Amino acid sequence: MNAPKNHLTVIHEQVIAAGRFGASRGWVPATSGNFSARLDERHIVVTRSGRDKGALTPADLATISLDEPLPPGLSAEAPLHVARYRADPAIGAIYHVHSTTAALASRLHAASATLLLQGWELQKAFAGVTSHTVALTVPVFANSQDTVALADDVEARLGELPAQSLAPGYLLAGHGLYAWGRDGNEALRHLEAFDVLLQLQLDWERSQR
What we know:
Number of helices: 5
Order of helices and strands: HEEEHEHEEHEEH
Number of domains: 1
CATH superfamily: Class II aldolase/adducin N-terminal domain
Mean pLDDT: 96
Radius of gyration: 17 Å
Largest sheet: 8 strands, mixed
Strand content: 15-25%
Strand order of the largest sheet: 3-2-1-4-8-7-6-5
Distance between the termini: 63 Å
Number of strands: 8
CATH topology: L-fuculose-1-phosphate Aldolase
Helix content: 25-40%
């Protein structure tokens, strides 16, 4: 009889599977993107910098504290993950991808700083959304190499928006998408739904011109 897996192993497998799924969809070209999951109340597991997300191993993941300075070797975008986990204890996983759809949608909506989703049945793939009539806000932020300051800006704006109208993700202009969920499965479902919804929104907007 096989011994039960410890919790760290389960979390490692979850992040590795998410990376492989993202790679299979072409969402993390080269070594782009980063993936994380909550280990416990004060610790997360996050991908290290410059790793192929389609070929992750446990050695490509780091366990870090939400209360201590970040160690070297992490993605420069790790502060964005840490800030989200600190702000919302219900978040269990955060996945960041550089899909072409997200990058394009983010640039086209950078000036308004908002992309609005409404009228799409697939919106109900997002936790808590029960109708296609709900208007969901996807915030769009200017990209920045100062990710500590960017994380502060992101959390300040997310905190100002009504929770019931906020989609479980945001866009960085010309960059990509951050999506989260209460666990890895939910985060991955949200990520996949975003990919389709953003493409639908782009196609619909193009048809209205």
